Hints:
This protein is an alpha+beta fold. It is built from 18 helices and 24 strands. The strands form 6 sheets. Strands 1, 2, 8, 9, 10, 13, 19 and 20 form an 8-stranded mixed beta sheet that branches. The protein has a 7-stranded mixed beta sheet with strand order 6-5-15-16-17-14-18. Strands 3-7-4 form a 3-stranded antiparallel beta sheet. A hairpin with a 5-residue loop joins β11 and β12.
Amino acid sequence: MENRERMEVDVLFVGGGPASLAGALHLMNRISEYNKDVESGKVQGERIEDPMVVLIEKGAEIGAHGLSGAVMDPVTLRELVPDFEERGAPVEHRVTNESLYYLLPNSQVRAPFIPSPLKNHGGLVISLSRFNRWLAGLVTGSGCEIFPGFPGVEVLFDGDRVIGVRTGDKGIDKNGNRKGNFEPGIDLIAKVTIFGEGPRGSLTKGLIPRLGLNEGKDPMTYLTGVKEVWELPETRTGKGEVIHTLGYPLPADTYGGGFIYPMSENRLTLGLLAGLNSPDPFFDTHERFQEFKRHPFVQSMLSGGKLLEYGAKTVSISGYASMPRLCFDGGMLIGDSAAIFDSRRIKGIHLSMKSGMLAAEAAFSALLKNDFSQEALSLYEASLKESYAGRDLLSSRNFHQGFDRGMITGMMNAAFGLVAGGKGLTRWRGLKSDYEQMKRVRDYCGNSDPKNPVKFDGELTFDKVSDVFHSGTIHDEDQPCHLHVKDLSICHGRCREEYQNPCVKFCPAGVYEMAMDEAAGEERLRINFTNCVHCKTCDIRDPYGIINWTPPEGGGGPKYKLM
Length: 563
């Protein structure tokens, strides 16, 4: 049996995104305020001495895996750090102007007005990776311990009570043997464990069904977003103007849209979001994004510019109807791990931060009472529902489900919801997971062959390998592959016949490849795991649900600086 170091902590945050960072900072602030009140006699009680609050993150540093659009509603940031501007928060721009376009293949139509959910006036354009690094500095300064490069690989239980997380071993070679630098993972034993791993968390995806947290809930549904940051000779959009697009290059049966946001220093960020429930087995978000850049409207903004950075990430968009039970004995779920996202406003950062802060309040109360049961922690779920975050989630509860029935139905449903407090034309239930909605090639394409070759010029458009280079992604090649396919015979048999191996298309990093195996005399699946940008698309979209994304050795993955 492995002799592992055991570290006991009071509160453990899993994941280094905005939900966990905001939660950790708020918890440390609350403990500090409480101790001062006890010392002054303002509050009767005993000090919380030397609180051990720990945050673990799989990336080499906080922010390395952080990616979002992102226009952030500042309401939660003002609550958490009222003087955020004086403290150097990395705000790229404040939104002063905005527009919405419907793109046709060679032209565009500007919407005469902006629907109220898409109004972002006063919002903050940020790089999430830069924002997370800044926030992490405040968290460290508050006394919370941050351990980057430590992915959680196993939830630790005592019966059905969560008691902590085990971190991954280091120093294992590609054959599973220990290298000279082998280091076993640590068992972090916590009174409260707060899971903020982001969308399709590698721990929460197993924790939720084990504890029955999703009983009676719709399946979580997702988008994949691909994004680039460009440096331009001069600013091409109005200062502070954000642009959203609908239509081209997405087909009518695929939900999503594009965005173009200004950044500081003549940089521009743009991206494309597309639903992972697309019925098209050949759908490739990365290729569609390259087509998006070829559109004359977008291309004119990028002319003379230079690609700086690329990234990809999934987003959990199903929201309220898919939110699992958030509290259980010994722990809570926050942020994207809990489907906390307002799909109507395309906003999640401020809601994730608020969920982290409210979970921190429940953890603080639990520490005072020395009670870490589901009942004690349920303060979090109740307060979330009563907060502005809960009201936003409730008001957008039927938005995305309408678009699952087509663009026209979706628009009608969205308009109805605006005047009806979030009610839908009917209560559509999302009974199928994203991967179940992909159609077989013969059902979707008939006898036609849609696989037209796509050419990339290396100046405006880039192949996946080139884009991955611009993500800074690095993995040690001498380690076990972290992408586990449960049954390769399906890949080489049924999947080839029925879907023509869609993983080759849907992965935005070129991880999956069908390559000729001379010994077998046929093409076999090759997994280029060192390309992986940790977006989790494969874990969600594989039509048989047989790809399991697990964390690689700590520190591997993208090295985002501007995402």
